[in-house]
Amino acid sequence: MLFKLTGSRGAGRTTLASAVTARLDTVAVHDFDEVGVPTRRSLPTDAIA
Question: Distance (Å, rounded) from C-alpha 6 to C-alpha 34?
């Protein structure tokens, strides 16, 4: 199962992710605010359309 939470700053993404994590057994949360959004330079050339 995959959940993608989107929204502007202050929309409650982190709060919702925390609530989902508390209810499900195994959850991995990846926050782009912490790890950064990939740039075109970090993508393989065959992945760039």
Answer: 15
CA distances (Å), 21 to each of 4, 9, 25, 26, 46, in order? 13, 20, 8, 8, 35
Q: What pLDDT was estimated at residue 33?
A: 73
Extract the residue ranges of the chain whose pLDDT is less than 70. Answer: 37-40, 42-49
| Whole-angstrom distance, CA of residue 15 vs CA of residue 19 | 6
Output the pTM of the full model. 0.57
Q: Dihedrals φ, ψ of 19, to 5°?
A: -65, -40
Dist CA 20 CA 17 (whole Å): 5
